[in-house]
Every structure is written in structure tokens, then in C-alpha cells.
Amino acid sequence: xxxxxxxxxxxxxxxxxxxxxxxxxxxxxxxxxxxxxxxxxxxxxxxxxxxxxxxxxxxxxxxxxxxxxxxxxxxxxxxxxxxxxxxxxxxxxxxxxxxxxxxxxxxxxxxxxxxxxxxxxxxxxxxxxxxxxxxxxxxxxxxxxxxxxxxxxxxxxxxxxxxxxxxxxxxxxxxxxxxxxxxxxxxxxxxxxxxxxxxxxxxxxxxxxxxxxxxxxxxxxxxxxxxxxx
Length: 230
Known about the structure:
The structure is a single chain. By secondary structure, the chain is an alpha+beta fold. It has five helices and ten strands; from the N terminus they run ββαβββαββαβββαα. It has helices at 79-82, 125-132, 163-173, 198-209, 215-222; strands at 57-58, 64-65, 90-94, 97-101, 112-117, 138-145, 152-160, 177-178, 181-182, 184-187. The strands form four sheets. Strands 6-7-5-10 form a four-stranded antiparallel beta sheet. Strands 1-2 form a two-stranded antiparallel sheet. The radius of gyration is 45 Å and the shape is elongated. 11% of the residues are buried.
């Protein structure tokens, strides 16, 4: 047989000329003029610094000096030091029950007392006394607090010896802010809650003559007759 001729091998030819010199591009920065100078700010008056707060500290002798209060706290009536003719305990009554109250002994004799309502938890005796210290016959201020939690119950009392200051305080201070809330004022009726008072006796007499009726009894009386076979 006849044999086919073999193809000639392919030779790869690579031809490249090396770069002898690199091309360098020089970029010149633009000539930007500087910004114009800003005008000077006008000289405004500067507020003076606040006065330093006295937080207390140690003096030269080595003892601690307490801070001075910003507003003076008025002196309040103290039954132990000044004394009074009130009994040590009062018998109070409400809702058919009676109890002994020894806190009423701490108030002056024949005082005119105001009930202060809507007090916040931040209000204390000193803050309440400062609010009413402008009246000359002011005697005492007391915020009622819970014995277990220490939080205020939302009300307190203020005492005066002059009936004029008593009336003016109710007119002028009602609705004014003491702490974070506006207060509500009215005459205190603590003497009507005594067990032997006329107002309490009328309530006790009304409770004895009026029988308690349960919801079941009221429904049975007001129900239609045919439901009960009558």
C-alpha cells in the first residue's frame, strides 16, 4: 500500500521588541488662588459664669461643713419643746370602727388648719413649709406618708394661728405649684372625724337605721313578679 506523507511540524515564532524608554507624563497642578479671608466675628457680650454651688466640705479644722440651703426653711411648731393642752391621743371613728390617733397632739392649740391635696412624691415637709412661710402666723406643715413604703399619700396639712392668714392662704395659694403639681386647698375637717363629734354621730345613726342590701336582694325585689310566681 501507499503511505501518506507526514505533515511538517509547526514552529512557533515569537517576535517582540523590548521597550527601552518609558513614557513619563508630567501633570502640573493648577494654580488655584487662596480663598478670601473671612471677616472677624462681632464681639457679643458673654454671660457671667453662674455662682458657685456650696456642696459642703471639710474646713481647716478637719470637720465637715454641711451645704447651705438655697432657700431658708422656716421654723415649725414643735409640741415637745413648746407644749400644748391637747390630749396625747384622740379617738377617731369612721365606717363603724374607732381607733387611737397620737399624731394630732403635734399641732398647736386652736389652730386653723388647711387640707392640701394633689401633692407629688417629691414634696416634703420643708418644701410645703417654704410655700406657706410668707404668712406671718404660719405654724406647721406636714406631708402624710405611707409608713411601709415612705411614699407620700398625696395630701398634707398646713396650720395657722390667724384666721386672716388662713383665709388668705386658701384664696391665694389654691392652684399654685408646690413641687411639680398644682395644689388644691380646702378647710380641714379633722375635728369632724372624732368619735364623739356631731357629724360622726349622725353618720353612725344613719348606718344603724339603714339595713345593708346585697346585690342579690336588690335584683330579687326589682325583678318582674311573673319570674317569681307572684
